[in-house]
Amino acid sequence: MAEQPKVLIRTFGCRVNQYDSAKMLEGFRRAGIEPVDEELCQTPDVVVVNTCSVTSDSDKKARQLIRKLAREHPQAKLVVTGCYAELKGEQLIQIEGVDRHVLMNDQHELPALMAEELGIDSDAGMLFAYEAAHAPLTGFGGRTRAFIKVQEGCDLWCTYCSIPKSRGEPRSRTIDEVLIEAQSLLENNFGEIVLCGTRLGSYGRDLGLHITELLEPLARLNGLKRLRLSSFEPEDLDEALIDFIASTPVACPHLHLPLQAGSDAVLKRMGRLYRREEYAQRIEIARERIADFAVTTDIITGFPGETETDFEDSLDMIRRCRFAKVHSFPYSERDDTPAAAFTDQVERTVRRERRKRLDEIAFRTAAEFRKEFDGTTQEVLIETGNPDKGYAGFTGNYLRCEVNSCVELERGSLIPVVIKDSSSRVLVGEAVGEEKSLSV
Asked: What is the pTM for the complete model shown?
């Protein structure tokens, strides 16, 4: 009996990409192509690289990995997809060993196409494609949390960003479709659901809905222990969303709100829709209503025209907003974006130097924020570890926590932890009481 074909998927970038990869993997399974077991050093018949193009560094890393995988698995059919492949597919297809690039709208057809090329029942090809596109997810690559993409596309057209070109106009999944997929994941023991989208806060506008009209029925699903929202544009954080998080026990008190710059002059050149005072006020209102509310953010250093005063404004916002974590990026030119043509480009050495200075401030303020939780009891979702080396997981407000326990803790369980210490990166605590399993 011939060995079942195998697929290896490598994913760069955001939660949307991670969801897309999980969806493709589900389609491959349905088409009779199983994921490789890397611990057994299995050889893949298909290799898929799901790329990101948010920075030039993302592009570089994708090219490096594609070449590496082509050398390691010359017998495999090597496919590239994702944002970088969407924008520069003609370039990636020129890399030796790459068989094809697949547009994101066609990802659902890839499992059937590969099944046919590998000699698996070609008559079932259309069925495989249909199932991959429409069947709800049942698993999520060994994770303890499952992502659901509820929205795709962005129409903000920030001057530094190429994502609207790769992801297209905003479009939302129906409430029923999302509920069915969430229930499928809950039935497979994923008690924490993370909603994601290219511009998540715009969910439902094309359907005449507000995002809370999706969140409310989701929060009522049996078996759901946590409902987490991923990145939100600051202008989308409104009173209704704040009230929902504040009043809903399963809603996690955390949001990722990209600031990008603390200077109004830079925000204007970026094409962002808010200004620093509006951003800070929204966080202040949320913190007044939502217990333990934590904010993470993105900040770009060295955007064209950024002066030292502009940069100091970003440092001031870090101190003022007390971010739990700052993802910092030196400005990276993206082809065919307005900012790439700006004449007042900042020297690359200055971009990197400002990032280093920003990270130093961000680490200190993150440590101060975490210190506020010393002595409190937080519920932690256990993701890794063992009794000898300890465990690790995340609190409801998305603070990483290292957990010591005198008893074995089940991966995927939700347990109360007394916080004993903290740093800029983690909380440290002791497990108390009995674990609360996420299993349904």
From this structure: 0.90
